[in-house]
Structure formats: structure tokens, C-alpha cells
Specification:
- By secondary structure, the protein is mainly α.
- The protein has a domain of 82 residues.
- It is built from five helices and no strands.
- The longest helix is centred in the first third of the chain and has 54 residues.
- It is flat and about 95 Å long.
Amino acid sequence: MVTSEDEITRRIEQRDSQRSTRRAHAATLVGKLARQHTELAGQLAELERELGTVLTEAGDVIDVAELAQVTDVSLADLTRWLDRSAKPARGGKRTRVKSRAAAGPAIAAEPRASRAAPPAPTASGDITGAAVGSASS
């Protein structure tokens, strides 16, 4: 027996409804986890800045190698936190250098009329390089 058009439509709508529910659930969960990730990443960055500051301030009384031994924190981690605190944060985008034409007339190229002309051919008719095409064939 062949299924009626109404039954086919009802089945399609039911499947679409189930799929839409699953899609909405997935999107909601991804959004929630992404917000949580952003929040935790900010907290982690702040902790790393604080660790770097403490390591820098304590550098005159204890070095990172000794701290690694007494705290069981890896030397690589301590060094990374210390290095990040010592280096300034990168700035934004670099500004481009203005082109010569945009810099104004003082820097603009000299007019063509004042440039020296290329040397004229000699009177003997010596044209060097003219036979290259025929000699190479």
C-alpha cells in the first residue's frame, strides 16, 4: 500500500522537528561552552600575568631554577611566565608609511622636462644590438 501525501508530509515534518530540536540543542551547547572558554581564558591570562609579576619581583632573592626545584613547577613554565612579563605586549596594526606622492609636492619626483634625455645615436650610424635578431636565427 502506498502512503498518502498527508502521511508523507506529517513524517517529513516530524523528522524536521526532531532535527531542528537537535540542531538547537547543539548550537545552545556550543554557545555556552564558547562563553565559558572565553571567561576561563581571560582568567588564565590574568593568572599568568600575576605569576610573571611575582617572578620578576622575586628575581633578586630566588631564581627560576631554584623555584622549580622547591615548587615542583617545571622550569619551562616558570621561564615562560617570566619571559612574557618582561616583554611588552604587542601593539595594534602598524601604520603604513605614506607614499611619496601623498607626502606632498616637496618630495614628489622632478618634472619630466627637467630630466636629462638619453644619448642620441652617433653620426656613423653605429647601431649596436640591431643584428642580434637576424644573427640568432
